[in-house]
Amino acid sequence: NTRRIVLPDNGRQWKDWKQASTVYSRNRIHTTKYTWFTFLPRNLLRQFHRLGILYFFFLVVLNWFPQVEVFHREITMLPLVMVLLASMIKDAVEDYRKYRYDKTINFTKTRVYDR
User: What is the pLDDT confidence band of residue 25, given thresholds at 50, 70 and 90?
Assistant: First the structure.
């Protein structure tokens, strides 16, 4: 079992593999939407593009005015928070499954057949 590194023939002579690897991008699959740092802002942005979430948010904002207040402020926020949390958990689990699948695909051994 010998390993072989294939570089494009563009007229340059590469002296070292590290030099070549900085020029060309990695050949890996990346299908996840979020990272640890971008999960909360990106997920909230995606959630508030949905009409139902905007309706619940409108009710929460409307209920903060004393003239229009029907229920307690906390009770009005409860449906919005529950729907947001359920959607966030679902998206987090789905994205983690994509991450694990990408990891298994990226570390799968392949065979190179010479002609």
Answer: low
Stated as kind and residue range, the H or E segment containing 24 is: none
Residue 112 lies in a domain: no
Q: Indicate the number of domains in the chain.
A: 1
Q: Could you tell me which residues come within 8 angstroms of residue 56 by beta carbon, excluding any fewer than 6 positions away?
A: 79, 80, 83
Q: List the domain range (segments joined by +) for residue 41.
A: 13-107
* Contact present, 48 and 57 (Cβ < 8 Å): yes
Is residue 113, in this structure, part of any structural domain at all?
no
User: Which residues touch 84 (CB under 8 Å, ≥6 apart)?
Assistant: 44, 47, 53
56 part of a folded domain: yes
Helices (H) and strands (E) in the chain, counts: 4, 0
Residue 115 lies in a domain: no
d(CA 49, CA 70): 26
CA distance 33 to 88: 13
pLDDT at 99: 93
Tell me the two tokens of residue 42: 């990106």
